[in-house]
Amino acid sequence: MPRQSAAILAYRLEGDQPAFLLVHPGGPLWRSRDLGAWSLPKGLVQAGEDPQVAARREFREEIGLDLDGPLLALTPRLAYRGKVILPWLVRADLDLSQFKSQTFRLEWPPRSGRLRDVPEVDQAAYFPLPVALRKILPAQAPILQEAADLLAPGATGADPS
């Protein structure tokens, strides 16, 4: 069975258009990367764990905020190295001034023996679809596009709130 990663794509409306919440990975490897580097808040589903529970846990770990309310399942997507992303959509206009990511221990520089704590993500921001599509990792772009299509005027069943 392929490894599964659970993700939540939060959005808010800016006027009549959705803006999507993406996160930028922390650590020195990603520091100078922007376009094609951002992601949905996500993480591995543990053995026997409900994927929605995992998605909410990972969101809390990466953003530092809890999400309430129902999640709308989006299409699972193959990411990389056989990993499958299980994404959910939720409307959430979050106050990102409260953003705080958990940290992890990293050996940097590689093979130096020096360990340092770095944040899982170092930025979180809402972006309108055209910007979000340029910033997100290419394998996750179809998730954004599916959400945008569901939220388009005239689409049905889009708002999980």
Question: Would you write up a description of this structure?
Answer:
The chain has 161 residues and is α+β, with helices and mostly antiparallel strands. It has a single domain (4-151), classed as Alpha-Beta Complex (Nucleoside Triphosphate Pyrophosphohydrolase), CATH 3.90.79. Helices cover 19% and strands 33% of the residues. The chain is built from three helices and nine strands; from the N terminus they run E-E-E-H-E-E-E-E-E-E-H-H. The strands form two sheets. Strands 1, 2, 3, 4, 5, 6 and 9 form a seven-stranded mixed β-sheet that branches. The mean pLDDT is 91.
Features:
single chain; 161 residues; alpha+beta; Nucleoside Triphosphate Pyrophosphohydrolase; 3 helices
Query: How does the helix and strand content classify structurally?
Result: alpha+beta
Could you tell me the CATH topology label. Nucleoside Triphosphate Pyrophosphohydrolase
Strand content: 25-35%
DSSP helix fraction? 10-25%
The fourth-level CATH homologous superfamily is: Nucleoside Triphosphate Pyrophosphohydrolase
Poorly predicted regions are none
Number of strands: 9
* CATH architect. name: Alpha-Beta Complex
CATH class: Alpha Beta
Q: What Rg is obtained from the alpha carbons, in whole angstroms?
A: 16 Å
Number of helical stretches of at least 4 residues:
3
